[in-house]
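User: Quick one: structure for sequence A, then sequence B.

Assistant: Sequence A:
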Amino acid sequence: MNSRMLTVAAALTVAGLIGAGAAAAAPATVSGAGGNRIGTVRADGDAHVKEGGLSAIWTLESSDIKQIALSGDRIGVLKANGDAYVKDGGLNAAWVKEASNVKQIALAGNRIGVLKDNGNAFVKDGGLTAGWVHEAAQVKELELSGDRIGIVQGNGDAFVKDGGLSAAWVYEGDNIVDIDLAGNRIGVFTGDGRAYVKDGSLKAIYAKEGSDVIQLELSGDRIGILKDNGKAYVKDGGLNAAWAHEADNVIQIALSGNRIGILKGSGRAYVKDGSLTAAWSHQADNVTELALS
């Protein structure tokens, strides 16, 4: 569990939205690649998804959920008992059980990744019933984007591979708390809150993006950070673009294309669509996780 997840859990406990002993998923993939779906996990464990405009109607997807992941027409959920399910198609498509003893699920295109309780990471490519490929052991976070797979190991070492499921790993840094992938960009932040992003090959040079960071998100040309003081910032364009202050009292952010989502400490979720200064649209209350496709 990364520092962002710890901060979210602590804030929601204070707000009375989850119990102090409630289980939480491993670091979750909450940002997307420009889709039009929004997903939430509510304080009662219900997962809801809407598709279309910001004022679309919510569809209840499942109950007893501790993580939701969205990518294209796929929805993934992680149950409180560690079972992971994915559906492909409409919001009312049938669920397919993918694995048990899971602590994180990740989706990207036709790929599905699961991180097991024992630290083993697996990825499949193709249909929902495709075979699993073991990617690595001693993993604490798994990320997928396009043909790239990223992991952070228990010792803080980060690796990314680009290509097939059996491609070679490339070392990306140490003392890493969290890794994020989007297109040709790789983002990491360290145990002391320094955030870095690189654009290009796996061996490109990192640009420092911020300090005192507890969450880093990437989508397209946008970079979002959440500071430890609850302030959320997003930039659009090159790695050295200017930051726009998006909101205060935030405990989670999510990005997807022109959409920005935030979750407040009160459990209220908001999304905007358009420029960095677009107006916020209130989406739901009593939210514990917000995800964009």
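Sequence B:
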Amino acid sequence: MMNYTKSLCVLAFLLLAAACSMRPTIPLISDKNVTLAEQNPLLHFDQEVMIARISQVLLVGNLAKNERASLHFERGVLYDSLGLWGLARYDFTQALMLQPKLAAVYNYLGLYLLLDGDYDGSLDAFNAVLHLDPNYEYAYLNRALNFYYVGRYGLAQRDFLTFYEADPSDPYRTLWLYLNELKYKPYEAKQNLAQRAKGLSNEFWGTNIVHYYLGELSYAELQKKIDNFAVPYSPQYAEILTETYFYLAKQQLNLGKVDEATALFKLAMANQVFNFVEYRFALFELSHLRLNNVQE
């Protein structure tokens, strides 16, 4: 396992070597240390056992439709958390055939359609979620992301703001609202971020990322806070690294530093937190960057 972790670090360093010579050294991604979470297959043991149990129950023929739909949905969520998105889509589709009014299923399928670049299909899915359940908060986030990535920043602002107002203490809602405002009303974005930062909860790691965006933390201070916030090599450690690398990447991309952003998006994915929005959209951003390179 240690050899595997070292290999990941070497790979990540090679990805960053060219970029490091052109920018100030960032402790999180310096030539002496690339911070990554340990990838231990045993971390997913519980999910794998649950998948096996649900699969056994689904073999029973005398389940009611709603029971079978619920089991397909639960197994789909487990597959999604393991990065097995094709199997997850199959289960979500089966659940929808059995019970067509499952809002959460439309939300997952909408995300997959968005990641595939099917903006119209994903928009229809998120609209269906909100038709079935107008209080489904994450459908507002996901629909906002749809609008954001097609450049409809005014519509994205409306949904990002609805999502933010549902919990102003959540820094991730604040960060996405800020990223959209950089496009929608750039002269107000940082001032708005500073104002919203006052209401954030310190229980969330993302609050530190907001303070970094505001220039209140240096790269070195951010790294120290990572080590203090979570036990190294724990699942939570992988999660906060995924978040940190993603939002650092978005910052670099907004500054026009494509090589640095590309490397950071790859580092966000290297921690393999498959069901985090930051992992999903690191993958999405990389596909866009590759497409842009081909077109150029």
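The first helix runs from residue 2 to 20. The radius of gyration is 20 Å.

User: Thanks, that's what I needed.
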